[in-house]
Amino acid sequence: MDCLFCKIVEGTIPSNKVLENDHVIVFHDIHPAAPTHVLIIPKKHISSMNEITTEDLPLIGEIHSAALEAAKRLGVQESGYRLINNCGRDGEQTVHHLHYHLLGGTRLGALTSLSDSHR
Ligand code: AMP
Ligand code: ZN
Fold it and tell me: Which residue in 1, 13, 26, 74 has the most C-beta neighbors within 10 A?
């Protein structure tokens, strides 16, 4: 399958890993949008949040657990962080392998500051 993140899972494309276990990998985003910006991905190929099934629910727990462990290792647990999933066109999803962005290391601003025109 021609999937960028599956290649990162396989190791054919390199990544700067924060942690890895049997189920998930956490690695630094190549274009960081904040001082701390990592991606949490399942090793299993799931195209987007829309394709999550009930059998994947334990994996979502693994993703949250890995996100918390990464926040600890990266030193943002106390200062805070944001976990984001972009899904589909309006979510601006560009890589079609389920992933969650963990952002921190600065004040990220309120969600209402994303756009004034929709309030
Ligand atoms: P999204 O827009 O939610 O689909 O996020 C995809 C993310 O993957 C973007 O933030 C990219 O900067 C990031 N990205 C793309 N290629 C790589 C790569 N080879 N290694 C690390 N991050 C990547
Ligand atoms: Zn994939």
Answer: 26
Q: What is the pLDDT of residues 47-89, one digit of tens each?
A: 999 999 999 999 999 999 999 999 999 999 999 999 999 999 9
Please write the tens of the pLDDT for every residue from 91-108.
Answer: 999 999 999 999 999 999
Which of 15, 94, 98, 102 has the most ligand 1 atoms within 8 A of CB, as the residue to mutate? 94
Q: Is 108 in the pocket of ligand 1 (CB under 6 A)?
A: no
% of the chain with per-residue pLDDT over 70: 96
Ligand 1 neighbourhood includes 36 CB (under 6 angstroms): no
What whole-number distance in Å separates Cα of residue 109 and Cα of residue 116? 13
CA distances from 50 to 9, 29, 88, 95, 97 (A): 21, 22, 8, 14, 11
Instruction: Domains for the chain: give ranges and CATH numbers.
Output: 4-104 (3.30.428.10)
At residue 116, the pLDDT reads 63
